[in-house]
Amino acid sequence: MITEIRILRCDIELIQAELEANKPYEACGVLIGTVNGSTALVEKAQPVTNVKRTRRSFELDPKEHYNAWNEAEKSGKEVVGIYHTHPVSSAVPSLWDRETMENAPSVWLIAGADGMRAYVWENGVRAVKVIEC
Ligand SMILES: [Zn+2]
Predict the structure, then answer these.
(1) Which of 26, 59, 64, 132 is catalytic?
(2) How many angstroms does the Cα of residue 93 sit away from the middle of ligand 1?
């Protein structure tokens, strides 16, 4: 189980900029990198089109999502998680997020109006420590 996620300052800034640019809708994307034991190391945050484009949920464009997986794999990396934004609420999984997390077991990074937090699903929502590096 992943207990911490390391992410670069520039990727945090990119996600923050995506949050602002897509207001009042949610923005989303994938986190590409490697997993080492219980640590997910993000090397790149890559925005993906939110095909739902609502204020309360998101859905990664399937084709872009697939391409990101493919690209990551080609360079020996993986999609270690996904991110999305909560432009007007806190960085806590919504009911919809919880239901979706159960079927998408990777790190969920949420950038909310009150900062950034990460979670994994392990018989329930568990917090993952976010370390800026
Ligand atoms: Zn959400």
Answers:
(1) 26
(2) 5
Residue boundaries of the structural domains of the chain: 4-132
- Condensed to tens digits (0 to 9), the pLDDT of residues 8-50 reads 999 999 999 999 999 999 999 999 999 999 999 999 999 999 9
Contact in structure between 78 and 33 (CB atoms under 8 Å)? yes
The domain 4-132 is classified under which CATH number: 2.60.40.10, 3.40.140.10, 3.40.640.10, 3.30.230.20? 3.40.140.10
Hey, is 10 helix, strand or coil?
helix
Residues with CB under 5 A from ligand 1 (ion): 94, 97
Query: What's the 73 CA to ligand 1 centre distance in angstroms?
Result: 26
Which DSSP string do the residues of 38-61 spell out, in sequence order? TEEEEEEEEEE-BSS--SS---B-
pLDDT in tens, 41-89: 999 999 999 999 888 889 999 999 999 999 999 999 999 999 999 999 9
